[in-house]
Amino acid sequence: MKHLELLDVCRNIKDEIRKRIRRIPKSDLRIEVGMGKDGTPTKKVDRVAEEIALGILKDYDFRIITEESGVLGDGDIIVALDPIDGTFNASRSIPIYSVSLCFSNSEILGDAFFGYVANLATDTEYYSYGGWGKGESFKDGKPINVSSTNSLKCNAIFYYPDRDYGFKRVRIFGSAALELCFVADGSIDCFVDIRSHKNKGFLRIYDVAAGLLISRNAGAITTDVEGNDVEKKRFTMDERLTLVVANKNLHNKIIKRIRGM
Ligand SMILES: [Mg+2]
Questions:
Q1: Which of 34, 94, 231, 247 could form a disulfide with 110 if both were Cys (CB 3.0 to 4.6 A apart)?
Q2: Ion ligand 1 — residues with CB under 5 Å?
Q3: Who contacts 54 (Cβ-Cβ below 8 Å, separation ≥6)?
Q4: What predicted TM-score, i.e. pTM, was given to this entire model?
Q5: Is the residue at 150 inside a domain?
Q6: Is the same domain home to 137 and 173?
Q7: Where in the sequence is the domain holding 182, given as residue range(s)?
C-alpha cells in the first residue's frame, strides 16, 4: 500500500473518532467498560475509539495489534494501534490525547514504513513515511526536524525523574505518542522514560511505534536507557520499552547522565 492511501485510512479513523467523542457526555468518557488485553481497565472513550478504528481497518488485509483487544487478523502488514493515547487527559477534556497507528512489513519495529499520530483535541497531525531512518516526517503537511541543542540545560519530557538531571525544564504531558512528536518537531529537546515494569520498560509498542518512526525520521536517535537502538523491538503484546529519544549531539549526554557516567 502506498503511503498516501494509508494517510487517507488514518485520517478517516481520526475524523470518525473525533466526531464520535464529541457526542459522548463528558462524564461518560471515563466510565470503565471492561478490562483491556494489556491488563489495564478499558474506559468508554477507549472502547468507542477502538471500535471505530477496527471498523475501518477490517476492510484491509492487516494484522492488528491493539491495546484493548490484543492481536487481530493475519495479514502480512502489521498495524500497531493505540486508539486513544492519553486516556486520562481525554476523560477529563485536557486537550492532549491522540490516536496512534504504525504500519510495518514485519514484526520488527525497524521494518515500520508509515507512522501516524494525531492530537484528537486539536486536530494536529504528524506522520512519517519512507522507511526506518530513511524517510521524512511531517506536521500538518510540513517537514519537521528535531532541535539542534547539545546542552543538557534543555527542555525534557521525563517519566519520571528520580533526581535532578540538570535539565532546564521537565514536562510530562500524558501522551507518549504525541510527546515523541513534540521531540520530532523540535518543540521539546528530548523524551526520556526510565520506568520499569517486571524488569522491563513500561511503554508498550503500540504507544510509541508511530512516534518513534516520526522522531527517528525527523533526525532523532531512538534507544532504550542502555543505549540500544529500538529498531529490534517487536510488535507483540508483551514488548516493553524504556526510551531515550533526542538529537545525536544530546542523546549520548543524556545516556551518560542517566547511567551516572
Ligand atoms: Mg490507549
A1: 231
A2: 67, 82, 84-85
A3: 64, 66, 69, 72, 81
A4: 0.96
A5: no
A6: no
A7: 155-258
Question: How many domains does the chain contain in total?
Answer: 2
Give percent above pLDDT 70 in the chain: 100
Query: Does 124 fall in a domain?
Result: yes
Which of 122, 143, 164 corresponds to the end of one domain?
A: 143
Residues in Cβ contact with 218 at an 8 Å cutoff, skipping those fewer than 6 apart: 128, 137, 144, 145, 146, 183, 184, 185
CA of 150 to the centre of ligand 1 (A): 33
Q: CA-to-CA distance for 150 and 138, rounded, in angstroms?
A: 23
Query: 136 and 18 share a domain?
Result: yes
Distance from the Cα of residue 181 to its chain's centroid: 8
How far is CA 22 from each of CA 4, 78, 109, rounded to the nearest angstrom? 27, 29, 33
Q: pLDDT tens for residues 85-125?
A: 999 999 999 999 999 999 999 999 999 999 999 999 999 99
Instruction: Output the domain CATH number for residue 203.
Output: 3.40.190.80
Please give the distance, rounded to the nearest whole angstrom, from the Cα atom of residue 252 to the centre of ligand 1: 30
- What separation in Å is there between the alpha carbon of 46 and the centre of ligand 1? 6
**Maximum Cα interatomic distance, the chain, rounded to a whole number of Å:** 52
Residue 95 domain flag: yes
Tell me the CA–centroid distance for residue 68 and ligand 1, in Å: 8
